[in-house]
Amino acid sequence: MDTEITLRVDGAAHPLTVDTRTTLLDALRERLRNTSPKKGCDHGQCGACTVLLDGRRVNSCLVLAVTVGDAEVTTSNGLATDGQPHPLHRSFVRRDAFQCGYCTPGQICSAAGVLEEARAGWPSAVTADLTAAVELTDTEIRERMSGNLCRCAAYAHIVPAVADVAAAEGVRR
């Protein structure tokens, strides 16, 4: 069954007619030609399709497009401002935190979500003191980014790339 929806992606509204079974990932890639989120496993296990949905990270392969409603979808491309790369983009380049680059857009969206979660004080599975402010240590970054896999094993560079931005933005380290 087809239905009409409007997806707000990276600040622009896109009216679409989609099958009710269409995932957000497929709507982004196949209908809107937004190649930022990647189709990796298509089962929510690799994180290559990670986008932000009203600022919270989601695996877009697990979200039906018809359920998005008025939420703002932000891809890695949408994190840029006025044509300037986001600090995470610059940090990933500076730290060589990508190799083939396939997982990079999902990694960057996830990292943006990690920074917001830390600012909001949300603990993770490795947060030592649940009553204290979250400190975004390397262990915290690793845990919070664990849903994003990299086949090239750029992990040793991803953690410092995220840590650099956290420090520059005043997220407690």
TrEMBL record:
<dbReference type="GO" id="GO:0016903">
    <property type="term" value="F:oxidoreductase activity, acting on the aldehyde or oxo group of donors"/>
</dbReference>
<dbReference type="InterPro" id="IPR001041">
    <property type="entry name" value="2Fe-2S_ferredoxin-type"/>
</dbReference>
<dbReference type="InterPro" id="IPR036884">
    <property type="entry name" value="2Fe-2S-bd_dom_sf"/>
</dbReference>
<dbReference type="InterPro" id="IPR006058">
    <property type="entry name" value="2Fe2S_fd_BS"/>
</dbReference>
<keyword id="KW-0479">Metal-binding</keyword>
<keyword id="KW-0411">Iron-sulfur</keyword>
<protein>
    <submittedName>
        <fullName>Xanthine dehydrogenase YagT iron-sulfur-binding subunit</fullName>
    </submittedName>
</protein>
<dbReference type="Pfam" id="PF01799">
    <property type="entry name" value="Fer2_2"/>
</dbReference>
<dbReference type="GO" id="GO:0051537">
    <property type="term" value="F:2 iron, 2 sulfur cluster binding"/>
</dbReference>
<keyword id="KW-0560">Oxidoreductase</keyword>
<keyword id="KW-0001">2Fe-2S</keyword>
<feature type="domain" description="2Fe-2S ferredoxin-type">
    <location>
        <begin position="3"/>
        <end position="79"/>
    </location>
</feature>
<keyword id="KW-0408">Iron</keyword>
<dbReference type="GO" id="GO:0046872">
    <property type="term" value="F:metal ion binding"/>
</dbReference>
<dbReference type="InterPro" id="IPR036010">
    <property type="entry name" value="2Fe-2S_ferredoxin-like_sf"/>
</dbReference>
<dbReference type="Pfam" id="PF00111">
    <property type="entry name" value="Fer2"/>
</dbReference>
<dbReference type="InterPro" id="IPR012675">
    <property type="entry name" value="Beta-grasp_dom_sf"/>
</dbReference>
<comment type="pathway">
    <text>Alkaloid degradation; nicotine degradation.</text>
</comment>
<dbReference type="InterPro" id="IPR002888">
    <property type="entry name" value="2Fe-2S-bd"/>
</dbReference>
<dbReference type="InterPro" id="IPR052914">
    <property type="entry name" value="Aldehyde_Oxdr_Iron-Sulfur"/>
</dbReference>
